[in-house]
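[job 0412] stage=fold_complex status=start
inputs:
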Amino acid sequence: MNTSTTDAIDIRDAVKRYGDFTALHSVSLSIRDNEFFTLLGPSGCGKTTLLRMIAGFEDVTEGAIFLFGEEIEKLPPHKRPINTVFQNYALFPHMSVLENVGFGLEMLGHPMQEVRKRAGEALEMVQLSQFAARKPAQLSGGQQQRVALARALAPRPKVLLLDEPLSALDLKLRKAMQIELKHIQRDTGITFIFVTHDQEEALTMSDRIAVMSSGELQQLGDAREIYEQPRNTFVADFIGETNLLPVTVDEVQGGRAACHLPGGQTLTCDASAGVARGARVHLSLRPERVIVAAQPGVESLKATVRENIFVGTDITTIVDLAGGEEFRIRTSNSDRGRARIFEPGAGVFLNMEQGAARLLTD
Amino acid sequence: MAGGAASGGSSQSDTYAGARVWLLLPAWATLLILVVAPVGIMLVYSFLTKEFRGGVIWEFSWEAYDQFFFNRGLFGDEPPRIEWTYILIFWRSIWQAGVATLLSLAIGFPTACFIATRAPRQRPIWVFLVTIPYWVNLLIRTVSMKFLLRDNGPLNEALLGIGVISEPLHIVNTNLAVQLGLFYSYLPFMVLPIYAAVERYNFSLSEAAADLYAPRWTVLRRILLPAVKPGIVAGCILVFVPSLGSFLAPDLLGGARNFMIGSLIEEQFKGNAGNWPFGAAASMILLTLVLIILLFSARQQGRQEAR
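[job 0412] stage=fold_complex status=done
writing structure:
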């Protein structure tokens, strides 16, 4: 076994089965030290199962998990130097905030004086020092969330697991906490493994993202890679918004593929690996990478405007392609000077730069 | 209680002040007829003079209480000494009820946890199974217990059969038999309140504690037990109080030497002793004792909540 000691967490061929149901199909991934790592996917994709396996609440059916090179998948949760921020916070209701935050340190056998001191410091970090004597029930949801964070950070774990910790907060608070979490991660240098189903949250906070679906790892990369170079239709569709069009490849030449849409329109785009002549694949086009114009550009598709929807920062234009497929374009409100807004019924060209369209084989 | 009614009536702005009195009437009447009146009658009777073979003479007397606590010799003319007989019976009752409560707790707590951790659909079935034996009359159950435990009963035969013991265990007519009988009689009263508490318990708290380096027993002691303590206290009271005044199990399983308060009181009204004031006085002393225990545990509980 080539045990790499630099990775914080190394998951090798982890499988989780519940009876006949397989929740996780042989997942392998490495999480670097000091990284803000996100497991992203829709509910039921296996991301929480994987997190619980790292924490030790679920046993590993097959495979191995390493923590800084040490095999841990057989250890009970209380013997793993990993802490968790739970989705429902799971604060101990009969203990004060300070006792909650100090619990981990107390269990590790630190003298009470030190426990209190370090718990106080952890509370200070989340700006809740004045609530130390309160019971969790006397705090708001956002405050409870920060106590849960302080409690998990106080013992200085090697890895911190966060199971959708922001999902119960309202939008404003969630946005503020996203930034705060990112800062805390950077300041403490602890490896964070963050679970979420919110792709925007994942893109905002993560150094790297693992996109998961139906118990399998779909793609691993940083936010830009995942957004701009999705590996398959699932990732393209799940991360951000996209237009997925079924196309047939007519010709592949010099790294470019010429293909046609069901309506007969043609388009050339970068050929990804495995694309051959005659292949029926999908084309992914992000709504913001297309400009609606009266004249055709280098790469264009013909369409008819159906409607314009004002959504604050953006205007969404829905058009019908010649073959009848619906297509969405997003124009930033600040671009109004450059981009024209066409009335419904107008015949337009959808112009895009080379490389905007991406072929996906599955 | 009177304070509540007064504040309701004195409030000028309270539109329902008049109606409230009438609406509260059934509750007051029930309390009066089923609690205040019987206890009052008992209190009065405990201060009357006894009539031989039951009944009372309407003449004030301390004699019942005097007889309970003091021994003044056969003719009542000696200087009073402390009478240990009845205090001993009380002490034995408390001991027996206490052991039965601890037994119930030892078996009832894991049982309740077991039921509460089944799949939600299965839980009512388990609760149902726990209560099934209690559809049979208590007397029949206690008699059956005696048959089970006697020297040549199934328990001893089985133990002899598998060679654990070479001589039958004498269980009937011992303290242990009474404790087992009481334990079996009131076990569901321990299981059900604890089950209700454990069912409401959020098991992710246990996970959180384990995540924060707490080993299994520490999780149980520091997190689960404090969370379900109200259920445990309720269960203990529900087993201890009826065990204390029980007379079936001690009579049938304990024999003449293992007399408990319940039997003592029963004797005063039914048996040959026939001393109503003394029975009433013993009941009053028992009632006071139970009240003190309840008040103490309620205060402990309240103090814990307040902290």
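[job 0412] summary: Chain A touches chain B at residues 55-57, 76-79, 82-84, 86, 88, 90-94, 103-104, 107-108, 151-152, 155 (CB under 8 Å).
[job 0412] exit 0
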